[in-house]
Amino acid sequence: MHEGPEISTTPAVPPQRVPTHDTAPTAATGPAPDPAPPAEAAAPTASVAAPTPPAPAASSALALDPALAPATDSALVADPALALAADAPPATDTAHASPADVAPAEAAPDPEAAIAPEAAVAVGDGGILASAGGPVGNPGEALPVAPVAESDGGVGPRAGHRIRHWVLAGAVVVVLIGGFVVFKPDASPEAAAVTATSALPAATVTSVAPATPYDKAVAVLDAQTAALVKGDENGWLGAVDAKLKVKYKSLYQNLRGLGVTGLHYEPGIGQPVKGDATAVSMRVDLVYCFSDDMCPKAPSNEWEKAPRIEQKLTMKPVGGKYVISAIGAAPKPDFHQPTPWESGDLTFAQGKRVVVAAGAGEQKYLRTVLPVAEKAAAVADHYAALNGTPQKRYRIFLASEKQWKTWYGGENDKWAIGLAMPLNKRGIDVILRMADMDDSVTLSTTVQHELGHLVTLTGAFRFDAAEDTWLSEGIAEYIGWKPRAAARSLRRYSVQWQLSRSALKTMVPVEPSASAPARAGDAFYGLSHLAVDCMAHKYGEPKLFAFVKLVLTEDNDLDQAARDAYGVPFKTVDKACVPWIKNQV
To answer: Are residues 460 and 392 in the same domain?
Structure first.
């Protein structure tokens, strides 16, 4: 196990175009449509990829029970330009599967609703949406959503995940999709420099030496952050030069919109500025909290410390007061950078349990995503209570393609569509790649999957990614597809494909290599989901989540965790689940 901070969500499972017809179930052999509702390391991330179902007839679509889709009051806004034709033949590219691509041949055709951008975002007094942290309505106030016909067509959510490898002190740290990467973040800046004075006998000291430029600058920074937490925008902006006010206004509104509860600078050693004897530059950590539990007063290790970003500030006196006159990138930025909230204006939509923040250009999706996210949060809350990881509030960011490739260091896996990014031991952000949230199933299962990672990995300090990816992904799939069972998820076709090629000898699937076919990755997630489903079926959810917590957050091996949670060795669990899984598919 390795120390450190970070979460991630599944290995890269390309939502590749369906393989050739020889892998697709036929009308005679394919499954029936689902009748039931349904310390200085790079930053780790969590992402999602699409299931790869079988090749269907040109006009077929998988029939999904409407109960599985988001309620009509949270339906996706239809747009003819983005609508998916039910009778259109499968596309020929190898990007993401279309509705037809994931449907068994015998299913009835039906068009799938697509997520469409809102024509405009209403902003104003009493409005529900506002740019850069402005009013977005009262918490819990439902956003009006234009109802659309929810399709019964089955579009496989691109809910796959990715694994990253990070090097820490010569060791390889594997970041799971939806799992914590435990590595030690950068140490905080050096203690503030203090001007040395000559040692004098106590009797000769008659007054305190005047404050140095560094002291005066640090005092301004302290007052600035206190102003933001209090909601004093003028106080916050009063600490910056005129040329930086637009940038700092954006920072203020973004942090307030995200509900910041704590903010302060940890300054490093002051450095002189060439050509200006009164100015001072310093490296600082801007430390932030979005909830009290995220920032304990007495952290026991580096990973429990409050999250931070690193900056290099130059400060000079203007009108008798020090102000920030320049802000630059630090030589060794924190692994989280750039964060969404330091990268331009955000627009917010507030729900009872979720705050959704859209990057520039993605505001049009807020009305669609918020009700879906609220529904997913209700599911996640249930499992958070079961797992002992209650959440104050969920944060979800909507990213454009450019933002997706830059926020939190950037996600370059072309198949990834969702990300769970740990800020520290108890803080995790979720990011959605909106260009790929093109149908209701993809959106709902991706959000629910990522929140599943959040509630099962909060509090983890050690994480054995190399051995436990199947479990971290399996439990996230279990939560993400609720109320649909593993045998009814769209990954079942890839599971059938995999089992036709190799016999199932253990419930723990082998993670496919980088050179394996895309469908093998999809099958890995499907089999992981089935393994978790089996344990829930045989032992019940409370014992299942006790097992998950023992393994993923408390670093127990599988056998010890099974003995403690189920009362039997893991080999007994494995022996019972292998035939159960075979019978499901």
So the answer is: yes
Beta bridge partners of 172: 167
- What backbone torsions phi and psi does residue 284 show, to the nearest 5 degrees? -130, 155
CATH assignment at residue 17: 1.10.390.10
Read off the pLDDT of residues 344-376 as tens digits, 9 standing for 90 and up: 999 999 999 999 999 999 999 999 999 999 999
Q: Is there a domain that residue 357 lies in? A: yes
Q: Given pLDDT bands bounded at 50, 70 and 90, which one contains residue 466?
A: low
Give residue-wise pLDDT tens across range 308-328: 999 999 999 998 899 999 998
**Chosen domain end from 334, 367, 388:** 334
The alpha carbon dihedral of 469, 472, 474, 476 has a sign of negative
Tokens describing residue 81: 């330009």
Backbone angles phi, psi at 383, to 5 degrees: -80, -25
Segment 400-433, tens digit of pLDDT: 999 999 999 888 777 788 999 989 888 999 999 9
- pLDDT average, residue stretch 47-74: 39
Place of tokens 């959440």: 391
Burial of 8 per CB tally in 10 Å (0-12, 13-18, 19+): buried
Whether residue 574 is contained in a domain is answered as yes
Query: And the tokens for 409?
Result: 């260091």
On whether both 503 and 464 belong to a single domain, the answer is: yes
**Do 477 and 495 contact (CB within 8 A), yes or no?**
no
Give the domain CATH number at 286. Answer: 3.10.450.50
DSSP 16: P
Residue 417, pLDDT score: 87
CA pair distance 486, 449, nearest whole angstrom:
13
